Recover the amino acids of this structure.
């Protein structure tokens, strides 16, 4: 007998497109595409953790059918190249003059990322009966300058390989790429679908849960299904009846005290220490900069502050968040934000 | 006299041919003043004597080994490392390389050089030097060929990933060499400690000012340049801080530019991109009182602006103290960063002046209350490199790999999202911990991470 999976979020992971809850419209479109056996390059846009990659993966699986393993690749744009990959790229970059062909003696200047991760896959021929290969690039916005390299790539190898770019913020993708793609918006799950899903899990795990609790769960998890299932499992440890208190207790555990102390130091106006701590948090917990700002807002909302102060602070954070989208150095934006908060702390 | 100029750099043209007619910099070995010329000449002479001795003995040992196979084999002798190699250490441009070439010229030797422009991985060094050091080729025995002198220049440039394994190779080289090795380095490096232990190290000091001036004057005389005044020359020498190569390059640059007026302006504009320049630039920047001054500073400097604004970000706190000024400075810096981002995305390089004015002038001028301090302020490297760099411990990495077999997850998601959850789940009861660790097939170390 197959061993039962002890982690629910893995246990209830959808195995095919049909099992994905909600998002009927997107599912229909994707299924239509599968019938047609053709689609342009696509960009999947949506908030973090709502299942963009999962949908893209399941879609490519059903699209490619038996040839899935050979013709599919998932690439993370935000994971730096490993040392071996860099070495490989460097050694490949120069074509020796002893070789025959027009490339002899030339140096390849393609960005290392594309050279190492993308090109080898894209250049190879399609295997089996599939019309083309599928390449998924996750967190495409993290590529930054290397996005330029994708422009030609998408055109030259477009017939051979279609790309699905996955991103949380379309604004940081350069226009030439957006214009080459079909944009697919992946919305967060709707409450009705969420409720259905949770009820199914609850009956399977024989839990007792009522509508009110599901509503709270929906709010706490912010539409992230994996997060919601995690909370559900944690709450179920101490008993089969799920209540609101348990949910709050466990969601609190996920939270970080450091963010709170960071704000407290900032309110004292001690800038050097704030800068030190914020750098520590960002590097230790590997937070994405936008996520970090979001955590700050969450923490601010919990604090007893006057309306005016709260508004002003949120205004600052929003400003910094906006600038960080375009900016190149996150540390500057974070420092700038805290220097303003430190100055403002005199009025609190 | 023909007017045709031979187009080689003066640095090469006036490189001393012999160690005797060279203005030798003073040197110290472990604190003691030594005469470099004598030391090095003795070093080369001693090396060849030693080699002769060792080779004769080795010949006998080899013969012994060949004739008596059954008996215990004797090991061949080697030249002791302190007699095989020396290290010259000193600031750039004071004549370290020149000494070596002059020395080789005196002894009629051929110099085999490797420097920082070659990537010096283990393989590359072995390929280039090892064969020459170990054996003397067949041709060497037939023809009375030149002896060789091996120069490993800029050895402190060996570091990092590119040059992995280079230091052990160099040490191995020293132990097996058939030719004398001279190494040059700019500064003391801790990662070269294993090398320092084995060889003699000479600290070479810059030439005194009057010596430098003498050399410069003789070059000017030789080139028949009369219009460069003595005070101009002194200015150049001061600016270069004892770097003779820099001085010669500057003189050539100024005089061959054929501009016979405004030497002073030209001399003042001379800059050599180095760390000290960044340091002083940042110090100067916080002293300016107008936007124009700030702009002229950044205009003149060749420091890469990609990094310059990060340097400013890191060092702001040293120069500006009050929260009010800080917030203004960071506001300007953050707008500059945003503009730079726009430039890079859309390639709008016409926006670059705004970027410059904001990150340099805007930041520097935000200092209003904090007084300009005349004292020395320490300028530090930008420590924080933003971006998506992160690293996991080896146990964490293994854990991610194991989870990945069952469940597609990125390292970032794992650390932020999945690991806290698993920790709470496993912390709740022993049974849960066992089930999960069994399912993921974890060992004791990885289990500990979940507790």
């Amino acid at each position: 007998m197959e061993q039962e999976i002890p982690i629910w979020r893995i246990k209830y992971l959808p195995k095919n497109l049909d099992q994905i809850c909600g998002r009927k419209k997107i599912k229909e479109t994707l299924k239509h595409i599968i019938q047609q056996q053709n689609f342009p390059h696509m960009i999947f846009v949506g908030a973090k953790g709502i299942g963009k990659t999962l949908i893209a993966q399941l879609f490519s699986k059903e699209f490619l059918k038996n040839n899935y393993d050979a013709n599919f690749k998932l690439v993370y744009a935000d994971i730096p190249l490993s040392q071996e990959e860099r070495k490989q790229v460097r050694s490949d970059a120069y074509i020796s003059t002893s070789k025959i062909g027009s490339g002899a003696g030339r140096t390849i200047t393609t960005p290392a990322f594309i050279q190492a991760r993308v090109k080898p896959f894209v250049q190879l021929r399609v295997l089996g009966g599939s019309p083309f290969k599928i390449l998924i690039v996750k967190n495409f916005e993290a590529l930054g300058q290397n996005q330029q390299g994708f422009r030609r790539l998408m055109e030259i190898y477009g017939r051979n390989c279609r790309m699905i770019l996955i991103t949380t913020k379309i604004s940081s993708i350069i226009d030439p790429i957006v214009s080459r793609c079909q944009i697919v918006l992946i919305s967060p799950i709707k409450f009705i679908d969420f409720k259905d899903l949770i009820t199914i899990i609850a009956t399977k795990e024989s839990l007792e849960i009522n509508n009110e609790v599901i509503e709270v769960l929906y709010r706490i998890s912010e539409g992230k299904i994996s997060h919601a299932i995690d909370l559900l499992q944690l709450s179920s440890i101490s008993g089969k009846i799920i209540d609101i208190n348990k949910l709050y207790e466990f969601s609190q555990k996920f939270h970080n005290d450091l963010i709170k102390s960071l704000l407290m130091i900032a309110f004292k106006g001690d800038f050097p220490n704030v800068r030190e701590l914020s750098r520590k948090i960002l590097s230790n917990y590997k937070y994405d900069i936008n996520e970090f700002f979001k955590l700050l807002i969450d923490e601010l909302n919990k604090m007893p502050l006057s309306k005016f102060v709260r508004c002003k602070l949120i205004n600052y954070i929003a400003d910094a968040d906006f600038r960080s989208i375009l900016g190149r150095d996150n540390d500057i934006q974070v420092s700038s934000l805290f220097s303003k908060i430190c100055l403002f702390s005199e009025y609190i | 006299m023909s007017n045709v100029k031979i187009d080689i750099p003066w640095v090469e043209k006036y490189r001393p041919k012999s160690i005797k007619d060279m203005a030798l910099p003073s040197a110290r070995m472990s604190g003691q003043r030594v005469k470099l010329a004598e030391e090095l000449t003795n070093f080369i002479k001693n090396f060849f004597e030693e080699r002769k001795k060792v080779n004769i003995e080795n010949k006998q040992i080899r013969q012994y080994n060949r004739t008596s196979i059954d008996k215990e084999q004797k090991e061949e002798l080697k030249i002791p490392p302190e007699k095989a190699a020396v290290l010259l250490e000193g600031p750039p441009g004071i004549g370290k390389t020149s000494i070596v070439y002059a020395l080789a010229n005196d002894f009629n030797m051929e110099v085999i050089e490797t420097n920082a422009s070659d990537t010096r991985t283990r393989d590359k060094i072995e390929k280039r030097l090892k064969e020459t050091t170990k054996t003397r080729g067949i041709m060497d025995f037939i023809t009375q060929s030149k002896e060789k002198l091996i120069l490993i220049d800029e050895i402190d440039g060996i570091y990092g990933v590119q040059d992995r394994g280079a230091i052990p190779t160099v040490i191995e080289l020293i132990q097996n060499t058939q030719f004398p090795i001279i190494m040059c380095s700019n500064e003391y490096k801790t990662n070269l400690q294993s090398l320092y232990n084995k060889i003699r190290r000479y600290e070479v000091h810059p030439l005194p000012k009057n010596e430098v001036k003498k050399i410069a004057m003789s070059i000017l005389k030789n080139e028949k340049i009369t219009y460069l005044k003595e005070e101009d020359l002194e200015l150049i020498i001061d600016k270069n801080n004892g770097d003779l190569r820099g001085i010669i390059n500057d003189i050539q640059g100024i005089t061959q530019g054929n501009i016979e007026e405004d030497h002073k302006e030209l001399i003042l504009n001379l800059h050599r991109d180095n760390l000290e320049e960044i340091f002083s630039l940042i110090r100067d920047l916080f002293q300016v009182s107008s936007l124009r001054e700030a702009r002229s500073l950044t205009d003149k400097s060749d420091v890469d602006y990609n990094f310059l604004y990060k340097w400013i970000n890191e060092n702001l706190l040293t120069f500006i103290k009050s929260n009010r000024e800080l917030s203004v400075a960071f506001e300007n810096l953050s707008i500059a960063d945003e503009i730079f981002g726009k430039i890079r995305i859309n390639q709008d390089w016409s926006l670059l002046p705004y970027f410059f004015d904001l990150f340099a002038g805007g930041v520097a001028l935000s200092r209003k209350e904090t007084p300009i301090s005349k004292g020395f302020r320490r300028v530090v490297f930008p420590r924080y490199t933003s971006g998506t760099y992160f690293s996991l411990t080896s146990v964490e990495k293994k854990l991610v790999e194991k989870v990945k077999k069952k469940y597609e997850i990125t390292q970032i998601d794992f650390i932020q999202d999945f690991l806290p959850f698993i920790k709470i789940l496993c912390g709740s009861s022993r049974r849960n911990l066992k089930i999960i660790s069994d399912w993921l097939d974890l060992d004791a170390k990885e289990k500990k991470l979940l507790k």
Notes: Chain B touches chain A through 51 residues (CB under 8 Å).
